[in-house]
Amino acid sequence: MLTVSTVNVNGLRAAAKKGFVEWLAATGSDVVCMQETRAEPDQLPAAVRSPEGWHTQLAPSADKGRSGVAIYSRREPDEVRVGFGSAEFDESGRYVEATFGDVVVASLYLPSGDVGTPRQDEKERFMKEFLVHLTDLRARAEAAGKQALVCGDWNIAHREIDLKNWKGNQKSAGFLPEERAWLTQVFDEVGYVDVVRRLHPEGPGPYSWWSYRGKAFDNDSGWRIDYLAATPALAERCTDAFVERAPSYDKRWSDHAPVTAVFDF
């Protein structure tokens, strides 16, 4: 069995004070992918930077205090790669991958964007480059007899069933027609499989992000923007996939919830 979780921690130092450490100690996952860590390794307490029983790969952003991705694993990776060969984005703390035997696991933090601003332009540039990488990653992995799993905060709700208020968000970053079409390319053309949706084809949700504003969490007015995208042969081995939604608002340690998938080998 291989169990993998992904979660945007919304600041690893803050999450560690609100329940992340306890969650990590209790999880049955073999690999945990994190996004938006927003911390340099030397800013983290030892219990978070190097927790007992875990190998940690931290890829902070050169722009300190922003972004940042990480992979924690129970076994030491055979190989680690930070970035995907992008002159613009490799030092932005948005991608790290680790190889464990025949499986390459990646942690992705795709830019969130903001319509009508340079942030949306940045998101579009990232998406264009990253689609090339996804195509290459699958080809390289399969040529070597391996499979790939790209986990993370993709910052796009793919379909209407992936967010509660889809009608009111059709002109919002994260649900723009061109963003959704790009994600369709990832799944339908490049051939990655959304393992949660494969096992749970009907909506709504399950959502993985809820705004801290208002009663979004209590009303389950969320978005499903955190995905585990697997190459086809690996997706076939996925026997369970679920969102670890907090039992109540005050038990949350991030505005995202961990999304976990189990693969049978």
Structural account:
It is a single chain. This protein is 25% helix and 24% strand. With 265 residues, it is of the alpha+beta class. The chain has a single domain (2-263), classed as Endonuclease/exonuclease/phosphatase (Deoxyribonuclease I, Chain A), CATH 3.60.10.10. Strand 7 (103-109), helix 4 and strand 8 form a beta-alpha-beta unit. Helix 4 packs parallel to helix 5.
**Number of individual domains:** 1
The strand count comes to 12
Principal-axes geometry comes out as globular
**CATH second-level architecture:** 4-Layer Sandwich
What does the largest sheet look like?
Answer: 6 strands, mixed
CATH class: Alpha Beta
The SSE string, one letter per element, is EHHEHEEEEEHEHEHEHEE
What is the element layout, followed by pairings?
Elements: E1 2-8, H1 12-18, H2 20-26, E2 31-35, H3 46-49, E3 55-59, E4 69-73, E5 79-82, E6 95-100, E7 103-109, H4 118-143, E8 147-153, H5 177-189, E9 193-194, H6 195-199, E10 226-230, H7 232-235, E11 238-243, E12 259-263
Parallel strand pairs: 1-2, 7-8
Antiparallel strand pairs: 1-12, 2-4, 3-4, 5-6, 6-7, 8-10, 9-10, 11-12
Helix pairs in contact: 4-5
Key features of this structure:
265 residues; alpha+beta; Deoxyribonuclease I, Chain A; 6-stranded mixed β-sheet; 24% strand; magnesium; nuclease; metal ion binding; metal-binding; Endo/exonuclease/phosphatase
Structure in a nutshell:
It contains seven helices and twelve strands. It is an alpha+beta fold. The strands form two sheets. Strands 3-4-2-1-12-11 form a six-stranded mixed sheet.
